[in-house]
């Protein structure tokens, strides 16, 4: 299990650099790196000539939905694992919003065992904050954390009772557990399917005002200030929410924020003539908001970039826009879509992998996301300039609901390694 990667461009989010060099992986970990010509390969090792392609830490995708248990017809661990490996994702952090929610140690143990047995990549699991995501009774956070849950969230079921949420925050703080919130005020966002504005009016669709996100975030941050909890906002997508996030960070609160690749590279006009593959939650935003989010990610105000992989079957998407299910697959499209920001000059490669690999691993306490000596040899080798046209039927995911179907993209994964073992070629 010794592999020498030669003639690579090493993308290091720790040093914020891209350098031509080599990397030696031994016994599942990074044993050495260097610039220039590689050393003589150890006896019996495998030599990979990268021919100038980029070698980066494997992506840690925070917020992947897998259909098990309950919705295997949408996505199984087997198909999700293949999609992750093909997309350069070496750790899937799965969401608990399954048909049978992950709200007990037994369900968590089943999910972890099932994922470990059937996927070639690492699995980390989140658990629900309240039982059945109903917002009434706190989950067994202590037992779930002991069983391996890396964070707690009710997903897009926003907890409406601030007293219950405060109790959850207080208990989570006492255990050092991370709480992840979906910052949308349900009173303003309920029933909406598109960001409010002129385009929504022209299409005759019920809108969601951007202020719904700010109200949801302000409430959660106030409770974080009161309880001292560790908190992560799963998706910040509007410019009106950024000042509250900045104030919280400046005040020293233990707060981070994320965004999905769809909100960072698409806007509400992409919906066009009611194209339901572009229906996500929260809805796609105006172009001005998208540009503000790119700037926020570049400066580090937004910390994490993820796919928010949400598989939906054809039957739930082939409906009128207002009735169609929200969500899009993203495990395989996260990297090439993110490279749009690199090719446009908005973000460097180290900045992208800081948001996709290093920061999520650090926030969740996972040993991953860097090229430092001794780190796990979870790696992705990719050509950022390789062009292709995306065909959704060639995706490994069981569901094919991607907004990038037919899109011209740049950036192909040439290989993925997990603990030094090649899992995709």
UniProtKB/TrEMBL annotation:
One of its GO terms (cellular component) is cytoplasm. Its EC number is 3.5.2.3. Residues 54-238 form the Dihydroorotase catalytic domain. Keywords: Hydrolase, Pyrimidine biosynthesis, Zinc. One of its GO terms (molecular function) is dihydroorotase activity. GO terms for biological process: purine nucleobase catabolic process; pyrimidine nucleotide biosynthetic process. The keyword Nucleus does not apply. Residues 344-423 form the Amidohydrolase domain. SUPFAM superfamilies: Composite domain of metallo-dependent hydrolases (SSF51338), Metallo-dependent hydrolases (SSF51556). Pfam families: Amidohydro_3, DHOase. It comes from the Bacteria. The keyword Zinc applies. It is an enzyme of class 3 (hydrolase). This is Dihydroorotase. It comes from Meridianimarinicoccus aquatilis.
């Amino acid at each position: 299990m010794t592999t020498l990667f030669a003639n690579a461009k090493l993308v290091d989010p720790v040093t914020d650099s891209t350098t031509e060099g080599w990397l030696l992986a031994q016994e599942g970990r990074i044993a050495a790196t260097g610039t220039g010509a590689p050393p003589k390969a150890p006896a019996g090792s495998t030599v990979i000539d990268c021919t100038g392609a980029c070698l980066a830490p494997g992506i840690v995708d925070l917020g992947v939905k897998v259909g098990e248990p309950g919705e295997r017809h949408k996505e199984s661990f087997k198909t999700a694992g293949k999609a992750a490996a093909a997309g350069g994702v070496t750790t899937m952090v799965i969401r608990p919003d399954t048909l049978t929610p992950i709200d007990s140690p037994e369900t968590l143990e089943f999910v972890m065992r099932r994922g470990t047995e059937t996927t070639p990549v690492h699995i980390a699991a989140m658990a629900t904050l309240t039982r059945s995501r109903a917002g009434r009774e706190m989950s067994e956070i202590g037992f779930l954390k002991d069983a391996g849950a890396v964070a707690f969230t009710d997903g897009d079921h926003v907890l409406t009772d601030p007293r219950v949420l405060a109790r959850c925050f207080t208990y989570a703080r006492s255990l050092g557990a991370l709480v992840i919130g979906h910052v949308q005020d349900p009173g303003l966002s309920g029933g909406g399917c598109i960001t409010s504005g002129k385009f929504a009016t022209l299409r005759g669709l019920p809108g969601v005002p951007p202020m719904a996100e700010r109200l949801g975030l302000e409430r959660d941050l106030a409770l974080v200030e009161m309880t001292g909890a560790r908190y992560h906002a799963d998706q910040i997508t509007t410019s009106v929410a950024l000042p509250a996030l900045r104030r919280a960070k400046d005040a020293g609160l233990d707060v981070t924020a994320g965004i999905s690749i769809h909100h960072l590279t698409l806007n509400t006009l992409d919906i066009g003539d009611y194209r339901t593959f572009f229906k996500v939650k929260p809805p796609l935003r105006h172009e001005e908001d998208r540009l503000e989010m790119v700037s926020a990610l570049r400066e580090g105000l937004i910390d994490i970039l993820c796919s928010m992989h949400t598989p939906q079957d054809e039957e739930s998407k082939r409906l009128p826009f207002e009735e169609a299910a929200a969500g899009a697959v993203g495990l395989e499209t996260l990297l090439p879509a993110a490279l749009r920001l690199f090719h446009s000059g908005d973000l460097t490669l180290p900045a992208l992998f800081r948001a996709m690999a290093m920061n999520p691993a650090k926030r969740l306490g996972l040993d991953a996301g860097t090229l430092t000596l001794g780190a796990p040899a979870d790696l992705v080798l990719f050509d950022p300039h390789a062009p292709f046209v995306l065909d959704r039927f060639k995706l490994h995911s069981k569901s094919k609901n991607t907004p990038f179907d037919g899109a011209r993209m740049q950036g192909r994964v040439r290989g993925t390694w997990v603990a030094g073992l090649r899992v995709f070629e």
